[in-house]
Write a structure and sequence with these properties.
76% helix, mainly alpha
């Protein structure tokens, strides 16, 4: 192996380590939330194989929780698929926002990246990409670390599910919102971003109180992002 190859390998390893460290806040949230999913899925009667398979090939927290609830209620498979599809429509916004930064990547790389893109990894990537940190190794390390953490959390929930009669006292449902708040704070560097976040959050809360149980996040995000984009454009004129 040449010196150039050794240097490239060392650089790749360093980038992967940086990606692993960047994903640490996500890991802290994914393991307990994945644990809650594993417990609920186990109590719903899903096999260990199916629970872990869902965490591997679906890898979408809210969709998996909804799917487990619908499975418990005996809802038809097509209804479950359509419901989770609607819930995850927000990923179209994530992909559209990041696409300018990864336009030069190969299609197979884009496919792998998009497959593991979640709300939380999007928050990390958008912050890093915006300051020029668009390393493929780091990006994939972040996604991979988050995915593994989610699978481990799901497995722990299956293993110890019988020991937990009720997960409510554990307040695991607060872990995910707390993680989102931390990730949001990391992204806010300007007043415009703060106001966009406040507007999006306020509209989302108002809509869910009005009964918009599935689309409130998407609508709030679109309005908040549109406001932010309009203000930024107005400042430049």
């Amino acid at each position: 192996m040449s010196d150039q190859d050794l240097l490239e390998n060392k650089t790749g390893v360093r980038l992967w380590i940086k990606g692993l460290l960047a994903a640490f806040p996500i890991v802290l949230g994914y393991i307990p939330v994945g644990f809650a999913y594993g417990v609920l899925a186990h109590k719903a009667g899903l096999s260990t194989f199916n629970i872990l398979l869902m965490s591997t090939i679906v890898f979408a927290g809210s969709a998996q929780f909804i799917a487990v609830g619908l499975i418990s209620a005996g809802v038809t498979p097509i209804s479950i698929i359509l419901t989770t599809f609607i819930v995850n429509l927000r990923h179209l916004l994530f992909s559209a926002a990041l696409s300018p930064y990864v336009a030069q990547w190969r299609k197979i790389e884009l496919s792998g990246f998009a497959f593991e893109l979640t709300d939380e990894t999007f928050a990390i990537h958008s912050t890093r990409f915006d300051v020029g940190l668009v390393s493929k190794a780091e990006a994939f390390a972040i996604n991979f670390t988050a995915h593994v953490a989610w699978i481990i959390g799901s497995w722990l929930g299956v293993v110890f599910g019988n020991l937990v009669a009720d997960i409510t006292p554990l307040a695991l449902d607060y872990v995910l919102p707390a993680m989102f708040i931390a990730l949001l704070v990391m992204q806010i560097h300007q007043q415009t971003q703060l106001w966009a976040a406040i507007i999006a959050g306020t509209i989302s809360v108002v809509l869910i109180l009005m009964g918009f149980s599935q689309s409130h996040v998407i609508i709030g995000t679109i309005i908040g992002a549109t406001f932010g984009a309009w203000v930024e454009g107005w400042k430049k004129t």
